[in-house]
Design a protein that fits this description.
Layout: H1 13-32, E1 35-37, E2 42-46, E3 56-58, E4 61-62, E5 68-71, E6 79-89, E7 92-103, E8 109-112, E9 117-121, E10 131-135, E11 139-140, E12 146-148, E13 157-166, E14 172-182, H2 212-216, E15 218-222, H3 224-231, E16 240-242, E17 255-258, E18 261-266, H4 267-274, E19 278-282, H5 285-290, H6 293-310, E20 315-319, H7 340-357, E21 360-362, H8 390-401
Parallel strand pairs: 2-7, 9-14, 15-16, 15-19, 19-20, 20-21
Antiparallel strand pairs: 1-3, 3-4, 5-6, 6-7, 8-10, 10-11, 12-13, 13-14, 17-18
Helix pairs in contact: 4-6, 6-7
Length: 405
């Protein structure tokens, strides 16, 4: 039998082109009849976060509101989930899915007690002021914090301590603290270099603008410096309780004036009755001249503890002693007088006391100082060089307004 010859089918170029076009049209038509996702095919959300639907298209037109959604996403539990979308059109059913990954993506927070930059005196014993690590899911991770770095207080310089903690989801937080070893403490600094900013930072009120309600809820207690809020027309007598010339010792027994009248009550009795939300205590100007440091602090502590007992919910703020006119520094050799060096030391003692008693210190005194560490010209009245003028007292009050509890 004779073999049949194989015949090759040859398509004309125009016919081949037509077939290709038809195939493209069919593919496009088929593709346009499928559902498509708007947005990501795989979306990742943090635990606790709701997935916000981005939508569905059919033939390039959005049909999200007509689509039936079957979601089994549990945003409180890590895992991989699917959202199934079903769309019916002309007796045909179309389906598509989106993958949702739920995971913990929030790193823990590390808070450093006394701030990220602190100072230690050369030769002192270095002790870490402390830290706190909190995770949004794992809670308190403080015990899991790894601390690295060392401080040699025998050598002047700057040191870095690193704090690192990782949660169960492998999110890692790292925080660094600078330690400055100095041979100058607030007790040895001269007037020009005196600075409390790197000491016991957690006890100092930080910059934060006060609200009117906050300011209106403050009760001002103390000596004649409190009265000058009224004399300088900054505050009315409504918020002021005072007695001229008192110190931390006499403040516990002498009666208090309010609306220019003797209340016949001691400070502690006023606190027991009024129970203010916030109080600013201003004492010390008279004490600097006549009291020894230990007596000053011991009686001040006793007063604070008494306030806490009579009014436990009151937020206590101790205001720094403001600077005095440079004329007082010319009398610095006299042991029974006031001067700026003694004021600085007493303010440091007050800051240490606030840290010990867990109350806040308002370092407003620096707002009245000139470049030499003395009261700026025009900020203290000429008559005594001690009490603030309206300009000076406004500076003190502005500092209070910008350093809320």
């Amino acid at each position: 039998m004779a073999k049949r010859k194989k015949t090759k089918i040859k398509l004309k170029p125009i016919l081949l082109l037509s077939i290709i076009i038809i195939l493209i049209i069919v593919l496009v038509f088929m593709n346009n009849n499928k559902l498509s996702l708007i947005g990501l095919k795989t979306a990742t959300i943090n635990m606790g976060e709701e997935y916000i639907e981005e939508g569905i298209n059919y033939q390039k037109k959005e049909v999200t509101k007509k689509v039936k959604v079957n979601s089994k996403v549990n945003n409180k539990l890590p895992g991989v989930y699917k959202i199934e979308y079903t769309y019916k059109f002309k007796n045909k059913v179309y389906k598509i899915t989106r993958k949702i990954i739920v995971k913990d993506m929030i790193i823990p927070t590390i808070s450093l007690k006394d701030g990220s930059e602190i100072m230690f005196l050369k030769g002192s014993t270095y002790k870490d002021p402390g830290y706190l690590a909190i995770d949004n899911l794992d809670g308190d991770l403080t015990k899991s914090v790894k601390v690295s770095g060392s401080v040699d207080t025998s050598v002047l310089g700057e040191y870095t301590i690193t704090y690192k903690v990782t949660d169960k989801a492998k999110n890692t937080a790292i925080k660094k603290r600078k330690i400055i070893v100095s041979d100058k403490s607030p007790l040895t600094m001269n007037l020009k270099e005196f600075d409390l900013s790197l000491w016991y930072q957690d006890s100092q009120l930080k910059e934060k603008v006060s609200t009117k309600d906050y300011l209106d809820s403050i009760a001002y207690m103390g000596d004649s410096m409190v009265l000058y809020y009224d004399i300088n027309k900054i505050l009315t007598q409504k918020q002021l309780w005072y007695n001229n010339g008192i110190d931390p010792k006499t403040a516990q027994t002498k009666t208090v004036f309010h609306y220019y009248k003797d209340t016949n009550k001691t400070f502690l009795e006023v606190y027991k009755e009024e129970k203010p939300e916030i109080t600013v205590i201003t004492l010390g100007t008279n004490s600097v001249a006549f009291m020894l440091k230990d007596d000053f602090i011991n009686y001040y502590e006793k007063l604070i503890l008494g306030i806490k007992k009579e009014s436990p919910k009151t937020k206590i703020i101790v205001q720094s002693i403001p600077p005095v006119d440079k004329r007082w520094d010319e009398k610095a050799n006299s042991a029974s007088t006031i001067n700026n060096d003694k004021i600085n030391k007493f303010n440091y003692y007050l800051l240490v006391m606030c840290n010990k008693l867990d109350i806040k210190f308002l370092n407003s005194a620096k707002e009245m100082k000139d470049e030499y560490g003395q009261c700026k010209v025009g900020y203290c009245i000429d008559k005594d060089g001690i009490h603030p003028t309206k300009i000076g007292h406004n500076k003190l009050y502005d500092y209070l307004k910008n350093h809320a509890y």
